[in-house]
Amino acid sequence: MSVPFVNASVQGDLSAPPDQIFGQIPASGIDGIAFLDFAYETAGSSTHRVGGLLVGTWHGGWYGLSRTTLTFSGDSPTGSEPCDVRTGDAFVLRGPGYAGRTLWSGQCRGRYLAFMPAAVERMIEAPLSHLRIDSVTCDLAERMTVSHLLAALGQEASGHDSAADALLVDSVALAVLRASGALSSPPSRKSAALTARQARRVRELVAERIDAPLSLGEMAAAAGLSEGYFVRAFKGTFGVTPYQYVLRERVTLAQSLIRSGTVSLSEAALRAGFPDARRMGRTFRKMIGRSPTESTRLQRA
Length: 301
Prior knowledge:
Strand content: 15-25%
């Protein structure tokens, strides 16, 4: 008996629920973008109808055992993919109106980003109908950047009771759109930079919202720019991405609070915009290679 599902603007039926879900981000929480990291231990199938955009990776035989055969068949608007059989790992891109079926012969793991039309349109500042998106199925080696981005998002989505960081999800989603080929990369512009006024507005916004969730759209709106151009201009001005900048500011504030000795680690985490002390500690180790307390002791020495 099949199991119906809806994930952002993608819907269909599964032969059975996934055996494991490593992480997921519902569309309702991140402004029209959903993420799922799942696995099957036995053969199965799924059907899917795409209303917006779907970008994903399949990893056959993810336990390192015999390789899984993946069969993709569909009826896309362009008729470009009647059937495609892969063994091992594969990349898939599905645009609006795509309807298809996927079969796997054994163990496999999948990671998907599903975009509602509005989510894509706010990133490109144009109707989704203005984009020509052909259905693509290819060897994952041809889209390894997408694989790395989705794996990083999987780490963010796994093992946390709190909501995923909206700024991270937005930033990864925009990068996935470009790396997947759904959104062409803009020509290099040496002059891509924020004006002094725009930079000041963004710095003020980050300072005001340092203890609360902040989206890429809100940062871009403060500068009066589209999200795509804002990311390039921001990096041209600050030398880092918006997400990296916000993390750096949060770490700096948390270090100052911990060093003061007036707050607990949990309170320092919340006041610096981290969901909890554990997430703050993980960010510290990733960015500066030390835990919050180790970092503070070194600064005092």
